[in-house]
Amino acid sequence: MVEPVLEIFELRKSFGALKATDGVSLDLRPGEIHALIGPNGAGKSTLIHQISGSIRQDSGTIRFLGEDMSGLGVPQRAHRGLGRSFQISSLAPEFSALRNVMLAVQARQGSSFRFFRPVMGDRSLKEPAMAVLERVGLAKRAHLPAAELSHGERRQLEIAMALALGSKAFLFDEPMAGMGPEGSKALTKFLDGLRNEAPILLVEHDMDAVFALADRISVLVYGRIIATGKVEDIRDDPQVRRAYLGDAL
Question: What pTM was computed for the model?
C-alpha cells in the first residue's frame, strides 16, 4: 500500500462546549485530490487551520511525510512543504502580484539578506516568480497590486505562492469561492493537473468541482467524519444525502 503524504489521527478541538473537530481521522495519498465537504459550521476550516498549524489541536496527531507536525507552527510546516491557500485572502495587498510571489520564492530559498537589496531586480527571484504566475494565468497582471486584483485572481495568486514555496502537498480552503462559472471551470482544470505535482486536500462547496476532481471525499458534520469514499459512494450514501447533499444531486 502507498504511504500517505499526510495523516491525521483522532484530531480534537473544542471551543468551550463546541466540538469543532471530534475525533477526526483521514489521510492524503500521493497524486490524489481528497475533498472535504460538509455544511457551514461543520468544522472544515477549523480542521484546515489545525493541519496548517495556525490553531493547535487539543489532542490527536498530524503526520506529514512521516514526521509528527503537532508541535510545529505555520512557518515550520510550510518550510517542510505543506502549502496552503486561505478562504480569506492573506496576501500583502500593497505589493504587486509579482512581488508577493517573489517573497514566496525567497522563503523557499531560505535567505533573508535580500530584503536589504533591490528585491525587484533580483533575477533569481523574479524569473521563477514569473514562471509561476504564467502557470496560474496571471502573468499579464503581474505588476498590479494584489489589492487591485479581482477576488478570483487573488485566489489564483495564493495558489501561485503555494507553488512558489515548492509545496509537497496543498491545503486549499474554498478556492472556488467568489468565482463565476468560467473562473471555476478554469481553476478546476488547473487543479486537476496540479495533483500530479503534489496531492491536494480540498475544502469546497462547489459540488460540480468536487465531483469532477475528487478521488475520495470525506464528509464532515458537527466536527465528525460521517463518511469517506469515492464519488459514487458518497453520492449514494443515504446518511450523506440527509446530512448535506439533500436534493443537490
Answer: 0.86
